[in-house]
Specification:
By secondary structure, the chain is mostly beta strands. The chain has one domain: Lipocalin (Beta Barrel). Helix content is 12%, strand content 52%. It has two helices and 13 strands; from the N terminus they run αββββββαβββββββ. The strands form two sheets. An eight-stranded antiparallel β-barrel has the order 1-4-5-7-8-9-10-13. A two-stranded antiparallel ribbon has the order 11-12. A hairpin with a 2-residue loop joins strand 8 and strand 9. The radius of gyration is 19 Å and the shape is elongated. The two termini are 23 Å apart. The relative contact order is 0.20.
């Protein structure tokens, strides 16, 4: 039996959802995702990363009627995979983030002010971050890195504080080396785009 090309199926499904004034689209996580935290001490700067996150998580977006895009779905990263490119600093960060008792950092996606598309600027979203057993809502700035065919790459950035999660920045050498409270979090999402099933 002949099958319709994928792009025709996507168009038909999109038209069906548009008739209801609402468009529902799924983003499926692909390989190449990452999360980076950039910070500093009173001596130098550092950067720690969880690279090549590739669990096939799904984020569902629902948009229409000139309302913010509603989102459901999350990613769960293993804190024990943070790499600061320095063994001592890596161990300190994992210990500070309580990787043994709270092994996962989770980001729940809640909403976005508009659906990302080429030429659109000022993308912002709301997320819930769960770290070291503490949950906190944040507004995130997004940048559309690329959008080709059915693939999309988004970069989200947000400054957070250790104290947001009731954590104390690590110190070394009797307190002579002090890590600053601020961290700049950057997460990159690479996703395959497909309509949700009705």
């Amino acid at each position: 039996m002949n099958r319709l090309p994928l792009y025709l199926v996507l168009i038909c499904l999109s038209m069906a959802f548009r008739d209801k004034g609402v468009t529902t689209i799924k983003w499926v996580i692909t390989s190449g995702c990452s999360l980076k935290v950039n910070g500093s001490t009173n001596i130098n700067k550092f950067s720690c990363v969880i690279g090549n996150y590739n669990r096939p998580d799904t984020i569902t977006t629902v948009s229409g009627n000139n309302q913010p895009v509603k989102m459901t779905g999350n990613i769960q990263l293993e804190v024990g995979k943070f790499d600061c490119h320095n063994a001592i600093m890596t161990a300190d960060l994992r210990k500070t983030l309580k990787s043994e008792t709270h092994p996962r950092l989770m980001i729940f996606f809640i909403s976005m002010n508009q659906y990302p598309a080429p030429g659109k600027w000022g993308l912002k979203g709301s997320v819930l971050i769960v770290l070291a057993g503490v949950s906190k809502n944040f507004e995130v700035d997004y940048k559309l890195v690329s959008a080709e065919k059915d693939l999309i790459t988004l970069e989200g950035t947000r400054q957070v504080l250790f104290s947001d999660f009731n954590l104390k920045p690590p110190r070394k050498l009797g307190g002579m080396i002090k890590t600053n409270n601020e961290l700049n979090v950057v997460f990159t999402l690479k996703m395959k785009v497909l309509p949700a099933k009705g």
